[in-house]
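Loading example: each entry is read as two labelled lines plus one structure line.
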Amino acid sequence: MPVTDASYIVMLLFHLALYNKIVNALSLISSGKRGKCTQLETISACSLRRLSIQSLKSGFTTARLIKQHTVISTDHMTPEIKLHLITPLCELWTASADNIPFHDPFWAFYWPGGQAIARYILDNPQLMLGQHVLDVGSGSGACAIAAVKSGALSVTANDIDPVAATAIKMNAALNAVNIDVCTENLVGKCCVKWNCILLGDMVYDAEFTGQLLKWLNAIRCKGKLVLLGDPGRQALKDITENCLTEVARYRLPKNACLENRGFTDASVWSKQPIMAALMQLQFKFRSAANHTRHLILAPKHLGS
Amino acid sequence: MIIRVKPDKTGVVTDGVKHSMNPFDEIAVEEAVRLKEKKIAQEIVAVSCGPAQSQETLRTALAMGVDRGIHVEISGTEYDTLQPIHVSKILAKLAEDEKADIIIVGKQAIDDDANQTAQMTAALLDWPQGTFASKIEKLNGELHVIREIDGGLETIKVKLPAVVSADLRLNEPRYATLPNIMKAKKKPLKKVSPKDLGVDTTARIEVLSVEDPPTRQAGVILADVDQLIIKLKEGGHVQ
């Protein structure tokens, strides 16, 4: 018989919650990469070669594990993209987090915000024309694949998990597209190489959201298109009012609802380049017709 | 697992015991998630009072669809003497801080079977209560709660904010699958102490003694009714 927690409650908030300092920062923030690089530079060329062979081998092992534990799925909002995913057909579906051969396989699921961004890009390919795209927190690489399919000039998938990097390469091959993969933590870094940034499901708590916004504000000055996908997490609700515009909203399919208990929709938010934002501000003062940019981005699938 | 009484008779041995969510609380969490799926609720906050292991329980709640967790850390002797009155004060304070509209708790814990937290919390907040709920509906800004009572069901209307306690038939909680467990890892979990909330957790009840139930005497099999009558007479049960 289990000993239970006598004192367990649930509180439902109908209004915005008070801002609380959240103690657990996302693992994404911690950047251990730099230390590793310095170490690498000091070792001899010979051992470096051995290391690269090792990593190649471990890449093969990872790929084999991914193949073994996932199925190729098109049962999502972008059936034109095939992805290696853990689905109800897989043994791991009902496993606990301690009994799986991967460390935090976030890449093994097609997250709702990512699905919304990918659907939006595929339906509005004009947005990707001439773009050099960076997909931050890429996971399975679905948004990056959608960007290539929509005609982006170049696409980089960024995820700090090396296993995700392997999964992204496998998924890119599955869809016959070319994607650069980068595992450096790019949040906060200068991103001159890219003029479009995709962020699916990256907004979880006030602390990391704050960092992300600071970064986006800095790169916004360079007139980039930023698309953020999210199923309506509170941290996003707390920030959307001042700087984001909802450009599309999708009803999640049934299986996505079951994978994301509590969520029923996913939206794409656009962070507007500063000129458009300024124009909108002027329009606001002049008249109610302040939807210039919004109209350009008006989704076809809104509410579908 | 066999439950053993501590040698000093102050309680039962809980060292190394796996902590899990109380079944009635699972029902409470599930109902909250369903209210969010029906767009009645905007955000769900789960609260657990207890030692470090409570965080695992909170992660389970997050995997069931809760948005964020608050762990009120209470350990050691303080935890051993934690009573519904303390938990109610903690919940009442958090409900005010978080501007909650509904508090849902399990109707009772399966370890101490106290069945007091919902009622005390409602009293502390001066909110209406719908206890032993087997159905919750929101109509015209009010909650209609169907309650399980002796010999039937009772339907009551309560104004919001309100406290509800979940009974067995409210719903059947869904099992948390790996994708939900993975997503729970990204959800915020905050730790606070009762002191942060200004709640005094000094024991209000002193446990005098916890005893094992008396062991049953072995029985005997008798050959016939005559022998039974002889035995009963010997024992002074019949004359």
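Chain A has a mean pLDDT of 75.
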